[in-house]
């Protein structure tokens, strides 16, 4: 069956593409040697400790979205202020905001100014292939990215993290490369079915922290693939609370 998406949903999907263009702004830096950890649990602890050094983040991006024969591109900015705030904005070539997503705590608000639409919480989930939970896992990390009870096991050149809810159902899987101690793949599940798949590559060191400049985001159920390439990162910049106010604030 061929699904026809409303333009508001297409804009939402485009906004999720955190990039797909040249990344010459940031030079390639060889990742520093990773201390050898023989215990998979130590590898997991190392990754989480590294992520926890990032308290705030600003990232500028371009993006490419593939859905069937349709290809769309976007430019935007992501702001993160842990533990519970992030903002994702998409701008037109003329600088007008066409998409604005603000998350504070467990609540999300999405605005499409050109269409005069405002959606909150469950309304967003109903119109998006990626849920507010997916957003929090990808951007806020921490407990959101490692939900429930997570165990680590060695698997060839990787460590596989298996996260399960209180009932024992698998909710998330994370793969970490032994050679670099970096996350290479994450899968979020609804039941036994993958809901969202993220793949990370092209890690570079920015302000002493290894961050991915190539990301691919997939929604298997919707047949959507987002190719991502970050242009710039700022690690731990000062971000005023007003930047996360809903509606007309400026995320820059």
Detailed description of the structure:
The protein is globular and about 55 Å long. It has one domain (7-22, 32-239): outer membrane lipoprotein receptor (LolB), chain A, CATH 2.50.20. Strand 12 (209-219) and strand 13 (224-235) form a beta hairpin. The protein is 16% helix and 46% strand. The protein has 252 residues and is α+β, with helices and mostly antiparallel strands. The model is unreliable at 1-26 (pLDDT under 50).
Write the layout of secondary structure elements.
Elements: H1 7-16, H2 40-52, E1 56-67, E2 70-81, E3 85-91, E4 97-104, E5 107-112, E6 117-120, H3 122-127, H4 132-139, H5 142-145, E7 149-155, E8 158-164, E9 170-177, E10 182-190, E11 193-206, E12 209-219, E13 224-235
Antiparallel strand pairs: 1-2, 1-13, 2-3, 3-4, 4-5, 5-6, 7-8, 8-9, 9-10, 10-11, 11-12, 12-13
Short description:
The protein is α+β, with helices and mostly antiparallel strands and 252 residues long. 16% of the residues lie in helices and 46% in strands.
CATH topology: outer membrane lipoprotein receptor (LolB), chain A
CATH architecture: Clam
Strand order of the largest sheet: 6-5-4-3-2-1-13-12-11-10-9-8-7
How widely separated are the two ends? 41 Å
Round the mean pLDDT to the nearest integer and report it: 81
């Amino acid at each position: 069956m061929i699904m026809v998406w409303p333009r508001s949903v297409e804009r939402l999907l485009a906004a999720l593409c955190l990039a797909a263009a040249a990344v010459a702004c940031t030079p390639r830096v060889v990742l520093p040697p990773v201390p050898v950890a023989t215990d998979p649990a130590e590898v997991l602890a190392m990754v989480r400790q590294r992520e926890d050094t990032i308290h705030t983040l600003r990232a500028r991006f371009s993006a490419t979205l593939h859905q069937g024969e349709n290809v769309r591109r976007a430019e935007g900015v992501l702001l993160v202020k842990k533990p519970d705030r992030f903002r994702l904005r998409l701008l037109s070539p003329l600088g007008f905001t066409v998409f604005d997503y603000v998350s504070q705590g467990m609540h999300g608000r999405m605005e499409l100014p050109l269409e005069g639409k405002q959606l909150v919480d469950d309304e967003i989930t109903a119109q998006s292939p990626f849920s507010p939970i997916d957003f929090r896992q990808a951007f806020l990390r921490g407990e959101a990215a490692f939900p429930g009870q997570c165990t680590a096991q060695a698997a060839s050149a990787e460590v596989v993290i298996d996260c399960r809810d209180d009932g024992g159902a698998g909710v998330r899987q994370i793969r970490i490369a032994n050679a670099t101690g970096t996350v290479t793949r994450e899968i979020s599940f609804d039941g036994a079915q993958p809901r969202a798949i993220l793949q990370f590559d092209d890690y570079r060191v920015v302000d002493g922290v290894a961050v991915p400049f190539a990301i691919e985001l997939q929604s298997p159920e919707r047949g959507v693939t987002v190719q991502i390439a970050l242009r710039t990162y700022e690690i731990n910049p000062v971000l005023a609370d007003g930047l996360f106010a809903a509606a007309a604030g400026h995320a820059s």
